[in-house]
Design a protein that fits this description.
Oligomer: single chain
Number of helices: 12
CATH topology: TIM Barrel
Order of helices and strands: HEHHEHEEHEHEHEHEHHEHH
CATH class: Alpha Beta
Helix content: 40-55%
Distance between the termini: 41 Å
CATH architecture: Alpha-Beta Barrel
Strand content: 5-15%
Largest sheet: 4 strands, parallel
Strand order of the largest sheet: 1-4-5-6
CATH superfamily: Metal-dependent hydrolases
Structural class: alpha/beta
Number of strands: 9
Radius of gyration: 19 Å
Shape: globular
Length: about 325
């Protein structure tokens, strides 16, 4: 098993550098996973304490743009060692370059929660021009777009939300349904004409709570051609180790097939995880114990994400 594990890990190192550097910008922090309102804005104090520009203090849109400026600036100063993906071709080019230099890293910009739109779908154009390529309808509270699993009403897509879906697809931006309410997940997957993503979640089949996906929701996402990222934290897996993560992955692949399942760590610094990025190899080993083939492990550990990004980012 040790030789087989070493071979799989060697193949995956370039994938992990891509997968683990997905940058997701949350415009606020909230104390509850069950019921929050839009008044739970804790980032304003942080922005002021860290001397962010005054334009960010009271504007969720400006906060997102400021953080995009910082990431794009870092990439510009990296002499090509860090790449921000904007197009599917960027992914392909990066992977070719990384064959020659395995130290290269990459990521792309996404936003947890459409509150950054400030109720105006046309602000998608502003975010797109800044480099954002993924947006979720909601994070910890209901928005003008749709309900959150931790919101008050937990409703579905609003009329503005339906227009948001159409515009997201027109621009080839990725719709992320992580944190969305059940009705919102149902509404989006019913009208989606392009694959959708659930970047980080659990499955109710191994950990039954409101945040995690039911079998019906898993199938709805897979039907669009999308993928589901399995999270590492305890309420995602009902466990505190790689074995719990592997059990959730096994369950999800049993429902929707291995081509639709990926890692969804949620390494954001605010969630307690069983290990940091250096422990990813433990998941590989746990998947082997679950009976996954080497080829299927490669898909789950990053191959599916690479394929998804190549095919669904703008051309």
């Amino acid at each position: 098993m040790a030789d087989r594990l070493t071979g799989v890990v060697k193949h995956l190192r370039w994938i992990l550098a891509l997968l683990l550097l997905l940058l997701v910008i949350a415009a606020f922090a909230a104390p509850s996973v069950n019921r929050n309102t839009e008044q739970s804005d804790d980032i304003r104090r942080l922005a002021m304490a860290e001397l962010w520009p005054p334009r960010t203090w009271n504007s969720l849109l400006q906060r997102a743009l400021y953080q995009a400026e910082r990431l794009n600036g870092m990439a510009a100063k990296s002499n090509g060692s860090f790449v921000v993906f904007r197009k599917g071709q960027d992914v392909k080019d990066f992977l070719e370059r990384r064959k020659l230099n395995p130290k290269l890293t990459a990521g792309f910009l996404g936003i947890e929660g459409a509150q950054a739109l400030e109720g105006k779908v046309e602000n998608l154009d502003v975010l797109f021009d800044a480099g954002f390529r993924m947006v979720s309808p909601s994070h910890f509270f209901d928005t003008e777009i749709g309900g959150s699993a931790a919101g008050v009403k937990k409703s579905g897509l609003t009329p503005v939300g339906r227009e948001w879906v159409r515009r997201m697809e027109e621009k080839h931006m990725i719709i992320d349904l992580a944190h969305a309410s059940g009705p919102t997940i149902g509404d989006v997957t019913a009208m989606a004409k392009r694959p959708v993503l659930v970047s980080h979640t659990g499955v109710r089949g191994t950990c039954d709570n409101n945040r995690n996906l039911s079998e019906e929701q898993l199938r709805a996402v897979a039907k669009t051609g999308g993928i589901v990222g399995i999270g590492f934290w305890e309420t995602a897996t009902c466990g505190k180790d790689a074995a719990a993560i592997a059990r959730a992955i096994r369950y999800a692949t049993g429902v929707i097939g291995v081509n639709h399942v990926a890692l969804g760590s949620d390494f954001d610094g605010a969630v307690t995880e069983p290990f940091d990025a250096s422990g990813i190899e433990l998941i590989t080993e746990a998947l082997m114990k679950q009976g996954f083939s080497e080829e299927d492990i490669k898909k789950v550990m990053g191959g599916n994400v690479v394929r998804f990004l190549e095919g669904n980012l703008p051309e």
